[in-house]
Design a protein that fits this description.
It is built from ten helices and twelve strands. By secondary structure, it is of the alpha+beta class. It folds into three domains: about 160 residues, Beta-Lactamase, CATH 3.30.450.20; about 90 residues, Helix Hairpins (Orthogonal Bundle); about 150 residues, Heat Shock Protein 90 (2-Layer Sandwich), CATH 3.30.565. The strands form three sheets. It has a five-stranded antiparallel β-sheet. The protein has a five-stranded mixed β-sheet with strand order 7-9-10-12-11, covered by helices on one side. A hairpin with a 2-residue loop joins strand 4 and strand 5. Helix 4 packs parallel to helix 5 and helix 7 packs parallel to helix 8.
């Protein structure tokens, strides 16, 4: 594994180095070529254009033969290029060496000059030498009578370019050697922490969540080690919560099942003949069955939420109607448990878009908890208050029960968390309620002081105002 990672790191670094060097050296050669060859071309173009214009303007009138002596006498003595004067048939009348050519000029630049253009041509002559030629027309008044052609050899320039290429190639090899050495050193420096991370992740995959990775550096690999350690702690925490949840839910399921089974056996063994005992047994069986239904529904809803399969049936609704229904539903229980249940509606019948049954599930869970933790309190009271502003409809459920400790308050909405309370439940209710509210684009938060009570507030977005009845 170590050799494999090292080779990949070195191979990747070398590939990048070679790729960058090839691009840089190509750009370097192109730039040098443009500098030398382009410079030669610009000089010849400038000289040919200027000289042709000068001779056209100042040489004696007549044919190219009449202008030849003047042109020859006025050619710059320091001119390094071969300067040729060519007639309309392609014959070299004279050049700056004083000679005339026996071969006719047939290159592209010459014919373009006859058409009135100054043109450049690059190519090979019969000896194999690479040349560049620039041809410009010579006029007698407005008539083209000949061509002035500047010719220069490119072989010296190509020799210089070749030397630069060799120089760049040698420098490139040196840089590649340095890059290889750096890649080798870097790979060796990286391989130890990477191997450590591999070892730790393999341990985690086998269920060892207590293991931690050693942090060798503060770079990205060090950050990865920190991330793996955080992940390991979170997995361990979730695994512990899962185990505690399984243990808790097993206990929660066992209690009502045991009670139902016990009363079933009692009634089966003759208890059904005692009407009072029968009524008590059936009441307890019904109550425990309701508890089982709540537990199973919580588990089903949690499963659907985790799989993003919780169905929502959104419709326009007045939340007051739901709150009044819940008030009636919980009123008798509150009376039996000596809790003052108060309903205070102030939202003026505002409309929201919501799933009636899901919101009912949310408020039932919150009201059930409020009564459960208020039962037995002095002057026990649970308030249901609604109100609205320009954008939101709010519902607060306030109790004066046992409250929630600061330690539990930050975790109470987490999945599976039951806190230190011994009250029954799955630890899923508030988590599910929070997610249902979020699916309504709303917000849910909890405020509580231990020993004084709890306030849970839900904010839902408004649709529009329902006109009040006169």
């Amino acid at each position: 594994m170590r050799k494999s990672i090292s080779r990949k790191l070195i191979g990747n670094n070398m590939f990048i180095s070679v790729f960058v060097l090839v691009i840089l050296e190509t750009l370097f050669i192109v730039a040098i070529s443009q500098y030398y060859l382009g410079g030669i071309e610009r000089v010849l173009l400038n000289n040919a254009t200027t000289a042709a214009a000068f001779y056209s303007r100042n040489a004696p009138s007549g044919s190219i033969a009449d202008k030849t002596n003047y042109i020859f006498e006025n050619i710059n003595e320091k001119e390094s290029a071969l300067v040729e004067v060519i007639d309309l048939d392609g014959n070299i009348v004279i050049d700056n060496t004083g000679a005339s050519g026996s071969q006719k000029v047939k290159s592209y630049d010459y014919f373009q000059a006859l058409a009135g253009e100054t043109e450049v041509w690059k190519g090979h002559i019969s000896s194999g030498e690479r040349i560049i030629a620039v041809s410009s027309p010579i006029y007698d008044e407005e008539e083209i009578v000949g061509v002035l052609r500047y010719v220069s050899s490119l072989d010296p320039a190509y020799k210089i370019l070749f030397n630069y290429f060799v120089f760049a190639f040698v420098i490139g090899l040196i840089l590649l050697a340095v890059a290889f050495a750096l890649a080798l050193a870097t790979s060796r420096r990286m391989i130890i922490p990477i191997k450590e991370l591999i070892r730790v992740t393999e341990e985690i995959s086998q269920g060892n969540f207590k293991i931690t990775a050693l942090k060798y550096t503060d770079d990205e690999i060090g950050q990865l080690a920190d991330a793996i350690n955080i992940m390991s702690r979170e997995i361990a925490k979730n695994d512990q919560e899962k185990n505690e949840f399984i243990s808790s839910i097993s206990h929660e399921l066992r209690t009502p099942l045991t009670s139902i089974k016990g009363w079933g056996e009692t009634l089966q063994d003759g208890g059904s003949e005692d009407s009072e005992l029968l009524r008590e047994g059936l009441n307890i069986i019904g109550h425990e069955t309701d508890r089982l239904i709540i537990l199973v529904n919580d588990l089903l809803d949690f499963s659907r939420l985790q799989a993003h399969r919780l169905e929502m049936h959104m419709q326009e609704m007045v939340l007051d109607d739901l709150l009044e229904e819940l008030y009636k539903q919980f009123f008798q229980r509150a009376k039996n448990e000596k809790i003052n249940l108060v309903l205070d509606l102030n939202d003026d019948g505002m409309l929201i878009l919501g799933d009636y049954n899901r919101l009912k599930q949310v408020f039932i869970n919150i009201l059930d908890n409020a009564m459960k933790f208020t039962e037995g309190a002095h002057n026990a009271q649970v308030k249901i208050i609604s109100y609205a502003d320009d954008e939101w409809l709010g519902v607060s459920i306030i109790d004066n029960g046992t409250g929630i400790s600061e330690e539990d308050l930050v975790k109470v909405q987490n999945k599976f968390y039951k806190g230190t309370s011994k009250k029954s439940g799955t630890g899923l209710g508030l988590s599910i309620a929070t997610e249902i509210v979020q699916l309504h684009q709303g917000k849910l938060w909890i405020e509580s002081t231990e020993g004084e009570g709890t306030q849970i507030t839900i904010m839902l977005p408004l649709m529009y105002t329902v006109p009040l009845e006169e």
